[in-house]
């Protein structure tokens, strides 16, 4: 099963959109494999967006991501990365069509409420940055793990 990393950014959490955003992914058909609310520091924000460090908005982006709690999650499903990106919509909410998360919940590229990995490789890298795999399995056992625990 494919998986991807999704993060509700501080504006999404602050505006009380966590449930509505998670609902979009569950309605699409994703399985929630792990979820946690956390306040990330500048070092983690910089590592997460390392490929954008030369962009003029990088400082603003790190300020934004560290301005409040984020909700980090691992979502599982077929073509997880591509399906999550289509649920999320275009980077700039001005271009994101209604029906996508950014099309429905955001106005400006600097506060576009949600992140989704852009490739399977990025997904694994980002899951590694945000989650301890063993802790994630312990808190949210898959049916297979739960079954073997009961033997
Ligand atoms: P993505 O989030 O759709 O994958 P990226 O190009 O990887 O898009 O950009 C990462 C994040 O950087 C965006 O989601 C947005 O939060 C922020 N960002 C992108 N362009 C701008 C900009 O022009 N000004 C401020 N922030 C930006």
TrEMBL record:
InterPro entries: NDK-like_dom, NDK-like_dom_sf, Nucleoside_diP_kinase, Nucleoside_diP_kinase_AS. It catalyses: dZDP + ATP = dZTP + ADP; a ribonucleoside 5'-diphosphate + ATP = a ribonucleoside 5'-triphosphate + ADP; a 2'-deoxyribonucleoside 5'-diphosphate + ATP = a 2'-deoxyribonucleoside 5'-triphosphate + ADP. ATP binds at residues 9, 57, 85, 91, 102, 112. CDD domains: NDPk_I (cd04413). The active site is at residue 115. GO terms for cellular component: cytoplasm. Its EC number is 2.7.4.6. GO terms for biological process: CTP biosynthetic process; GTP biosynthetic process; UTP biosynthetic process. This is Nucleoside diphosphate kinase. It comes from Paenibacillus phyllosphaerae. The lineage of its organism: Bacteria, Bacillati, Bacillota, Bacilli, Bacillales. The gene is ndk.
């Amino acid at each position: 099963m494919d998986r991807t990393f999704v993060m509700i950014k501080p504006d999404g959490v602050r505006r009380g959109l966590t449930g509505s955003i998670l609902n979009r992914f569950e309605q699409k058909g994703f399985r929630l494999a792990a979820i946690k609310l956390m306040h990330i520091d500048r070092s983690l924000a910089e590592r997460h967006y390392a490929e954008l460090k030369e962009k003029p908005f990088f400082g603003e982006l790190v300020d934004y991501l560290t301005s409040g709690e984020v909700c980090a999650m691992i979502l599982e499903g077929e073509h997880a990365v591509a399906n999550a990106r289509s649920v999320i919509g275009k980077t700039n909410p001005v271009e994101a069509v209604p029906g996508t998360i950014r099309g429905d919940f955001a106005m400006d590229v600097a506060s576009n409420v949600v992140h989704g990995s852009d490739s399977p490789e990025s997904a694994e890298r980002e899951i590694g940055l945000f989650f301890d795999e063993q802790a994630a399995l312990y808190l949210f056992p898959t049916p297979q793990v739960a079954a073997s625990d009961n033997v």
